[in-house]
Amino acid sequence: MEFEFIYKRHSVRQFKEEQVPEATIKELIKAATYAPSGNNQQNWHFVVVTDKNKIAEIAQLVVEKNAELSTYLRTEAKIKAFKGKVGYHTVFKGAPALILAYAGPYETIADMLVADGMPQAEAMQYAKSNPGIQNVAAALENLHLAAASIGYGTCWMTGPTYAAQEISAYIGFNKQGYHLAAITPLGIPLSDKRSSPPRKPVEDVLTIIG
């Protein structure tokens, strides 16, 4: 049994300068929207940035937010570790396109229980599955697989979202109840070489109950 369309996907952090056609972007977003979502709420919204200067500015916003947040850390080890991640959090700066995946409101049973009087601390046990985020994650995975299947590279990124407010303000996106959940660069990989970290053996992550 072969699932090559899945195994072709890997994290790409270096891209050719070639622009991604708008028609291709639209097809990839369409593929994303065919993901399943709880109650078919489709609580996702995608913002695509293709201007190189704007992408560079978004990366700079992440750099500045990283520096700001590091001032709240109490030990040199934590500061060094957090600042050391900023390079990984800005690898999208060289991509010809940047996709911002936003998650919108999704009412869960926990929300309803709190509204009807259950203490929030007790109700939160029913919110752990977080279906609103799962919906967006499923859509983004569709996008990654679709992109890889036609020769494009992506990289699932949530680290830069600590600058979500600054990024959303910069691009002028303000949709009621939506927040930045993840981002991915998009472009043709600079190299054909694939590099994926090893996966845990299936036996370590699988339980079959007959």
From TrEMBL:
What GO molecular function terms would the record report?
Answer: oxidoreductase activity
Q: Which InterPro entries match?
A: Nitroreductase (IPR029479), Nitroreductase-like (IPR000415), Nitroreductase/BluB (IPR050627)
Q: What domain of life is recorded for the organism? A: Bacteria
Query: Coiled coil: which residue ranges?
Result: none
Q: Which residues form the Nitroreductase domain?
A: 6-187
**Protein name (record):** Nitroreductase
- Organism from which the protein derives: Anaerosporomusa subterranea
